[in-house]
Structure formats: structure tokens, C-alpha cells
Amino acid sequence: MADEERKSRDLTILMKEKINQKLSETGEKERLKDLLRSQLVECGWRDELKMHAKEIVKERGIENVTVDNLIAEITPKARATVPDAVKKRSTSKNPIIPCTTAWFIASLSVILFITHRFSSTRLTL
After folding, report:
1. Which residues contact 91 (CB under 8 A, 6 or more apart)?
2. Which of 6, 50, 76, 80 has a Cα at 20 to 30 A from 107?
């Protein structure tokens, strides 16, 4: 049973890598990022995460928080709070990625938020 689970996990990882490669090669990844960014801004998700990040920095003090720490703390909330409507719209417009849509959208959402907001290893608010 463990061998089957490992094979299934390996296949899933391989599929994600191939999808990501194909999306990059075709330019679809950039289009998806732009679409996703605008949808997340429109629904207030980005502002919500921004407030959460500021709360973390305020609680701990800016000298005690790095981008890596912030990513580790924000990522679970970011993934959990991507609105279903955004996920559904992305799936319906992009039938190439339905099996990994939630993973893709959540991961891309976090990456977009963090890279857009913070550009160095030390935080500035």
C-alpha cells in the first residue's frame, strides 16, 4: 500500500511539474497570474492578507520578522482563504488545470502576495 501511495504522489508531483512547464512555455502562466491578481484584489483577499501581515509584524516587532517567517505564517491562511468564486472562475476559464487548480491558485496567490509586497529579506511596512 505504501508503494502505491508513493507512486501516486510521485505521479502527482510529475503532473504538477509538467503543467507548470506547459503553462510557462505557452505564456498562459503570466496571463493566469494577471487574472488571478485582479480577482484577488477585487474580492479583498489581498487587503485581508496585508492586514494580517501587518498584525504579525506589529506583534513581533519589525526587527524580529523576516520574509521567510512571514511566508511561513501567512501561507496557511492565504491558501485557506482564497475565495471559492475565484477558484471556480479560474477552473472554468482554464480547463487545462482542473486537477491541480486549488493547489495552483493557492500557491500562486501566496507567491503573488509576498513578492508584490516585500522585495528584500527584511520587511518594510
Report:
1. 97, 98, 101
2. 6
2, three cell numbers: 505504501
Residue 64's identity, in one-letter code, is: N
Task: Give the 3-state secondary structure of the chain.
Answer: CHHHHHHHHHHHHHHHHHHHHHHHHHCHHHHHHHHHHHHHHHCCHHHHHHHHHHHHHHHHCHHHCEHHHHHHHHHHHHHHCCCHHHHHHHHHHCCCCHHHHHHHHHHHHHHHHHHHHCCCCECCC
For the chain, the farthest-separated pair of C-alpha atoms sits apart, in whole angstroms, at 49
Encode pLDDT of 63-121 as tens digits. 898 888 888 888 888 888 888 888 777 555 555 444 445 555 666 666 666 655 554 44
Instruction: Identify the residue whose cell numbers are 487587503.
Output: 47
What's the number of CA atoms in the CB half-sphere (13 Å) around residue 110? Answer: 19
